[in-house]
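SAMPLE LOG
Freezer: B-3
Tube label: C17
Construct: single chain, 193 aa
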Amino acid sequence: MKRFLTALKVFTSIIIISFIFVEGCIFVSANESHNKKPDYIMILGGGISGRNMLLVQLQRTQEALKYIKQNPGIKVIASGGQGRGEDISEAEAMRIYLVQHGVKNEDIIKEEKSQNTLGNMKYTREILKKIDGRENIQLAVVTSNFHVFRAKFLAKRYGFQVEGVPAPVNYLLLPNYCVREYFGVVKSFIFDR
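STRUCTURE (predicted):
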């Protein structure tokens, strides 16, 4: 019984320390500034209903639009597939919104196969290998502020030079998102290759 209690204390300590560390990384990434001019800006999908963007997706796309206006002519990667309850891909929903707000259609590259962040990076890498032969592509990834750390981590695994562009979320929902994101980071660190 004593060994069990000792093991339980060690396990609990590891969980608490890792939680504090990961949440610290999430917080720092959520508040970083972006100052390099990237080769591409990538917007991660966040869900649509029918043809309409959910709030998280809309916030990401609106933040990307601000960035695009500061960097005219930059190539945009709209990344997100089509899931249940979605009449079009998330990438297509983003493309429609961006074009309606003045972004040239020819500046938008759609990645429509992904169903998660790992897929966003994997399939975007495949597209860019076909259209851009460079190895050290500078990528600005636009995602929700709580998600920037994991998105950057996975982008680096696929060889991108990356910086995050955090989109705000409802601050009342932020604690819930951050706790969920801890488990997402742990899963990605162990399993996502």
